[in-house]
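Q: How would the structure tokens look for this protein?
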Amino acid sequence: MRSRSRHGLDPRLRFNSKIELQVLEVRDNVLVYVIGAHTLRSDRLLQLLECGFSLMGNAWKDWNNRIDFWMEQRQRTSPELLFEDQLRPPEDMIQDRVKELASLLEFGDLPKAFEIFDALHPVDQGEVLDGLPSALSRSLLEELDAGVVAEILEYLEPEESAYMIGDREPADLALVLDLTGPDVAVDLLRHIPIEKQFEILDAMSDPAEVSELLQYKDDTAGGLMSLGYPVVNETTTTPNALDQLRVFEEDAEHINSVLVVDSDRRLVGSLSITRLALARPNTLVSDITDREVHSVNSDTDQEECARVMRRYNLDLLPVLDKDGRFTGVILDDDLVDVVVEEATEDMFRIASVGGERIAGPLTNSLRRRLPWLYINLATAFLAAATVSLFETTITRVVALAVFLPVVASQGGIGGTQTVTLVVRSMALGEVPRRLGLRLLARELSLGLIHGVALGAVVGLAAYLWKGNVTLGLVLGLAMFGNMLVAGMFGAGVPLLLRKLRMDPAVSSAVFVTTFTDVIGFVLFLGLAAIFVEQLV
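A: Here is the predicted structure in token form.
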């Protein structure tokens, strides 16, 4: 790594054209300088400079502060930093490291910056790089070895990786990607222009696995699978199978079983390492193979893969090509991020912000949010038009306007609760199509109970507040009816969207809220219009 200095405490400090100082060494935490042919300790030099350059004012104070900062950083060792970091929340530690490294890089103290950076775990290094200003993070990355960068990329989101190093020359990127896992390389390449992808692949030393994985969509079993998992032929003897496994060396420590295929590489079953090791030397693999094995096709959606692994409690899931031949495996570790990603995406879609991230581009947020805000605005005008139909009734009984938000908000909350539960249950595969009517009946029953409980409370509250029994009765009945509507549409809308082969998470909440608002207003104001004489 090259030692570069831009400004601040430079290895050579220039005050004017006649005086030149050079740092010689650090002796007992005191800097020793060279002035011409003479050496001076920093404490004595500071005394002389303070006397001789007292007229320099602010310039002197700034220089003195920089020396203090430099000395403070020199006295802090990596073990001390590690011990402090273990006692603090990760977010606070990352924030402090970002500030510290930013100051060091601005001062040009790269050796100390690298000392602090190297002491961090790769996942923390990635977060620190993401938190640094773009120019500083790129300058730091440029000085890191390809192996260090490759290790950091293992923990970064593909978008972040592409932003940080995507503009490098193809040869430099190929050097880094050769040291990462094929899945990491593929995720990064998907965020790089297609023309540059080919250049990088040509420059890589062994692009075969990466090229194969690039053929599959990112959110399918083919895009998730790992290649090179140990596979043995069913006609192999157990000693030969163990010899094949020894080729994996230390990687074999994380392997609990091997997969068994026939001569055409069609999946036959699996075999645990323990059973393989305990088998007699003349035993064939086919004689001890467990033939009950679950697999998926390479184009199976990642959410379905997670569902299969969770349902059958699998550590790995074999992936087959369109001809039924073994291609690769999905490990349980590979699906941890998928489960989190799918759950987050469903939650975002319910709120109509699907595909958006908190630190993403502003244009992306506008493109995803604004259309749904316009749709919601249209539904709000629909609700307002419904209220306008009863202007005469509201004019005669102004108290009705006070309770309109009560009816609308409770219906909206009840509907949103049901939508969230149903959509999430669908995503987890807990609502097969044959159980749709049963789910609808359950939510209607729940809405009935909620309607009775809430209707009684709001009716009594309205009577105690306004002293009108009829008003309390009207409000209670409207609340009862609206909670039934919330249960019915909260479950019915997602089921209907699934029936129409649409994503239930995308627009269910908007539709349900519209129904509960409009029907709630119609029920409340319609009943009020019927009993208006008793309300006046």
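The radius of gyration is 34 Å.

Residues 1-41, 51-63, 65-78 have pLDDT under 50 and may be disordered.

Upvote if useful.
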